[in-house]
Amino acid sequence: MSSFWNNVQPAVRKETKKVAVSTLVGVIVMWIVFAVLHMALPEKVPLDYTVFLGGICGGIIAVLNFFLMGLTVQKVAASTDEDAARSRMRASYSQRMMLQMLWVIVAIVAPCFQFAAGIIPLLIPGFGIKLMGIFKK
Fold it and tell me: Which of 48, 67, 50, 68 is nearest to 118 (CA)?
């Protein structure tokens, strides 16, 4: 496993760590919003293990998606064949979207997940990256 991490470029590790932290913060904020909504509408908004499990699993999928994208970009940047690089990027995008769609289906169908709590974390990394960009300027 350590040889795998040695092959991951420091920039990919650094950015993935940032995305993981922002996703964790976003999931915690989501849980707080669920708690507030649950206090206001306890019959309509649950606050049980399904919300927490959905947030954890959705967050893991979101960070994994970003990490896999970083690995693909790292491999494409090292490639000399432009057509092969373009093909690799397209295949990676399709596979990562398939992973997310599979998760969305599982989050909706499986009773152990609250569907919104499982899907919302997929949106957090993009929002976190934009926020980091705003605050850097």
Answer: 50
Are 113 and 49 in contact by the 8 Å Cβ rule? The answer is no
Percent of the chain with pLDDT over 70: 96
Phi and psi dihedrals of 45, rounded to 5?
-115, 115
CA angle 21, 100, 5 (to 5 degrees): 50
Distance between CA 29 and CA 123 in Å, rounded? 13
d(CA 101, CA 50): 19
Residue type, 79: S
Burial (CB count <10 Å: 0-12, 13-18, 19+), residue 104? middle
d(CA 129, CA 69): 14
Sequence spans of domains, the chain: 2-132
- pLDDT score recorded for residue 125: 93
